[in-house]
Specification:
This protein is α+β, with helices and mostly antiparallel strands. The chain contains 11 helices and 17 strands. It has 2 domains: 2-139 and 382-406, 3-Layer(aba) Sandwich (Aminopeptidase); 172-379, 3-Layer(aba) Sandwich (Aminopeptidase).
Length: 408
C-alpha cells in the first residue's frame, strides 16, 4: 500500500536521493532551506510502500508576477528498484497531493521538470491529468557532463528493449579515470588555452570562507549578466545557497551537500569566479562569472580544469557542466573536434544547422566552451505543466512570446 506524507528527516531524505542513479542536488534537503530563506515555502513529500521509501518530491511555491505556481526542480526522484510500469502507480497519488497543496496555496499551475533522460516516455506519468509541455524550460534540459569513472554512471542501458528508471552499477566494476587521460581527450584549443592561462600567471584558489568572499563573485556576476543580458538569480538566492551548502572540510560519498567558490586571480584582481555544488559524488558547475576587462585572458578555462582535478581527487563520478544548446549526434562529433576542420575551431554551431553560427542560439557560446573539455551530452524530458486555473493560459501566452524573444 502506498502512503504519502510530509518528510521530516533530512538524513533519510538525502540518503535516499544519494542512492539513486540520478541524484540532482536541486532535490536535496538543503535546497528547500535555500528557498525557505528567500520566502518560497518548501514542500517535501515522501512516498512509501509498506514503510519502504520509494520516491521523494521537493517543490516550492513561486509567487511570480506572471503566475503563482508550484515548481518542482528536477523532481520527483524515484527509487532505482521501481520499474517504469510502477511509476504510474506512484505518481497517481503523488499528483493528487501536489494538486491539493498547489490549490490550497492559490497556484495557477504546477511546473515539473524531472531529471529523466529524454528516452523515458511521458507514459510514465499518470494519464488522467491535463499535463502539457511547458512553453519554457524551467531548468537546463540539454546537459553536458564529464564522466570521471568508467563505465559512465549516467549511461542508460537497454533492458528488454525498455529504458529502466534507474540502473545502478556495482561499485566493484567502477574504475576512476585519470586527470591525464581526461586532459588528453579535451579539444586541442581548450588544452592550449589552459596552458596559456598558466603561462600568463593566472592562479586559481578555493575560498575557505565562501560567505565572506561571495561579494567578489556577485560583482563579476552582475557585470556578466549585463553583458550577456540574462535574467539572474537574486543576490539573496546566492547568499542562501552558499549559507546552506556549507564549504566542504572533508569529503565522502555520503549524502552531504556542499559548495565551493573558485576564484581566478590575475594581476592582483579576481577576474573570474564560479560556484560549484557537490552532492553524493557529483560536482555541478552551477554559476559562473568573468570580467570583461581581461576578456583575452582565458582564466575560466584554467578555473574549470582546476575544479575537474579537485572532483577527481575527491573521488567524484560525475562532473556536470549543466546547460548547453541542443545538439544532434553529428553536431556533438563536430564540437568534440572529431570532424570539425581546423579553420572552424571554436566557432559555435547552430543547434538547427550544421553550419557555423555565433548567435542563433543563446547558449551557442557556452556550448563551445563546455564541450571543449570533453564529455557527453544527456537530453532530459521537457518541462511539464499542469494547469489549475484559467489564468494559466495567460501565463502560457506570455511565456510563449518570451521564448520567441529570447531566441529559444
Amino acid at each position: 500500500m502506498l502512503t504519502i506524507s510530509n518528510a521530516a528527516d533530512r538524513q533519510k531524505w538525502n540518503s535516499f536521493l544519494a542512492s539513486q542513479k540520478f541524484r540532482p542536488f536541486l532535490q536535496s534537503w538543503e535546497m528547500g532551506e535555500v528557498y525557505r530563506e528567500i520566502g518560497q515555502e518548501p514542500i517535501r513529500l515522501e512516498v512509501r510502500e509498506d514503510n519502504a521509501l520509494v520516491s521523494i518530491c521537493f517543490g516550492h511555491i513561486v509567487p511570480a508576477r506572471r503566475g503563482k505556481h508550484l515548481s518542482i526542480p528536477y523532481g520527483p526522484a524515484v527509487s532505482f528498484q521501481v520499474s517504469g510500469v510502477r511509476c504510474q502507480e506512484i505518481f497517481q497519488p503523488l499528483m493528487i497531493e501536489l494538486q491539493r497543496i498547489a490549490k490550497d496555496a492559490g497556484c495557477a499551475f504546477i511546473r515539473m521538470s524531472p531529471f529523466w533522460p529524454k528516452e523515458f516516455s511521458y507514459n510514465l506519468l499518470p494519464t488522467p491529468y491535463n499535463l502539457r509541455p511547458s512553453p519554457l524550460h524551467l531548468l537546463a534540459e540539454h546537459l553536458w557532463y564529464l564522466p570521471l569513472v568508467t563505465p559512465d554512471p549516467w549511461e542508460c542501458p537497454m533492458i528488454n528493449d525498455q529504458f529502466p528508471m534507474n540502473v545502478q552499477l556495482p561499485i566493484s566494476k567502477v574504475q576512476e579515470r585519470s586527470g591525464e587521460d581526461i586532459f588528453k581527450e579535451m579539444r586541442a584549443t581548450t588544452r592550449n588555452l589552459i596552458r596559456r592561462a598558466e603561462k600568463e600567471g593566472v592562479t586559481i584558489t578555493i575560498s575557505d570562507n565562501p560567505i565572506r568572499d561571495l561579494p567578489l563573485f556577485l560583482t563579476l556576476h552582475d557585470e556578466t549578466r549585463h553583458r550577456h543580458r540574462f535574467t539572474p538569480y537574486t543576490d539573496a538566492f546566492f547568499h542562501a545557497q552558499v549559507k546552506h551548502f556549507v564549504h566542504p572540510t572533508t569529503y565522502s560519498l555520503q549524502p552531504t551537500s556542499s559548495c565551493s567558490l573558485y576564484l581566478a586571480h590575475y594581476k592582483n584582481e579576481v577576474i573570474a569566479a564560479s560556484i560549484h555544488m557537490h552532492f553524493a559524488g557529483e560536482t555541478s558547475y552551477h554559476h559562473g562569472a568573468s570580467s570583461k576587462k581581461y576578456r583575452n585572458i582565458p582564466a575560466s578555462y584554467l578555473l574549470q580544469w582546476r575544479a575537474i582535478q579537485d572532483a577527481i581527487a575527491r573521488g567524484d563520478h560525475i562532473y556536470n557542466f549543466w546547460g548547453i544548446a541542443p545538439l544532434s549526434r553529428d553536431e556533438q562529433a563536430i564540437f568534440l573536434q572529431e570532424k570539425q576542420p581546423k579553420r572552424l575551431w571554436g566557432i559555435p554551431l547552430s543547434p538547427c544547422k550544421k553550419t557555423p553560427c555565433t548567435s542563433r542560439h543563446p547558449f551557442a557560446g557556452v556550448t563551445t566552451f563546455k564541450t571543449g573539455f570533453g564529455g557527453k551530452s544527456i537530453d532530459l524530458v521537457h518541462c511539464i505543466d499542469l494547469p489549475l486555473k484559467p489564468t494559466y493560459y495567460l501565463t502560457r501566452g506570455f511565456e510563449t512570446a518570451r521564448k520567441w524573444w529570447r531566441g529559444f
